[in-house]
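Notebook p. 47: complex prediction with cytidine-5'-monophosphate.
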Amino acid sequence: MPGAHIVLGVSGGIAAYKAVLLLRLLRERGHDVRVVPTAGALEFVGKATWEALSGHPVHTSVFEGAAEVEHVMLGRSADLLVVAPATADLLSRAATGRADDLLTATLLTVTCPVLMAPAMHTEMWQHPATVANVATLRARGVHVMDPDSGRLTGQDSGPGRLPEPEALEAAALALLARAEGVAAEPKPAPDLAGRRIVISAGGTREPLDPVRFLGNRSSGRQGVAIAAAAAQRGADVELVAANLAVPAPPGVRVTGVETTAQLRDAVRRAARGADVVVMAAAVADFRPATAPGVKIKKVAGRPPAPIELVENPDILAELVADPPDARTLVVGFAAETGDETGSVLEHGRAKARRKGASLLAVNEVGPAVGFGDVANQVTVLDANGEIVGEASGTKDDVAHGLLDLIASRLGGVGGA
Ligand code: C5P
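Predicted complex, structure tokens below:
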């Protein structure tokens, strides 16, 4: 996308000189770049450099160029906002939504992707305040790069170095390309408008004591992708989220849960009046029989006590046997591995018959596939174990493939 409108925010760190080179690289590719330094950044690189290389006037405060209401103008016109370097102070102000200069005010008005490249001393990068600010920004969808490790300002070295301009440029261009791809994608038909869909995602955690739990590797990506795709297709979506490793998508209602018991309650409550329940969460089959209220202690010379497990309710099977709403279409997921007793599909067929869900999406898991991975492949079976469809590709592709099957089973248009 040559000719994109990029806002380059620069905050006050010694690495600001690398932003000069980034500006040059972006300009050489034909992009229009508006530089918004903080007052601190101008202590390192002066206004004249930014103005001469960008070809635009440069302001640090909303009171300069006020006639244009620059932060709103920049926010509306930007295709990408890059902050490099992002200092600890800038991350903190962005995380708390401050608007005390032109850059932070612009950060509150942009709707385009935002890339931040932190740079600071290792101690500052690793301080819990910075760690929390970065987590907040990432949860909001800001792309915060990890700094490089290496020589810092003085003799010291460690994580905190601003990546080289070429790496910053590559990250910026990748985000631009992705944003362009999303914008070019045709919007899916609103074939689920008027439908209420409940989706469980993530993995349950069963407490062993106040600090430990039995859990699983589910990231929640597939369930989150289904929730996002269903919302795009017009459904009213409730996401029952168990310990997600990824942010919940916009436009869905989220109920956070931790344990299987909580997930069961939340799903059954939400299922009343729902057209579809998709159980994409990895639910623990067992939980510790007891979870003491105090931490289990290590006693020198004494072997650890064995952990007694008891079986959890099978929420999916219960939804089929005792549905909160008889007309709800119940969809399950089965993460399988093949073994000497049968292939992935054979195990999937047996599970489909056992659980009786309207649809069961079977996928193979192993150390490198299924969990956490970006790509996925599922075979969809009906309650008799017959193959009724397949979906593969990214987790978004799988989500839409599964929703195609669900939509065709729901029939008609809207929830009437
Ligand atoms: O038996 P398995 O765990 O492979 O079954 C997977 C499907 O069953 C998933 O849809 C999962 O959400 C659901 N499940 C459940 N309650 C359990 C275990 C699994 O609802 N206790």
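Notes: The chain has two domains: 5-184, 196-410. The mean pLDDT is 92.
Next step: compare against the earlier run before touching the bench.
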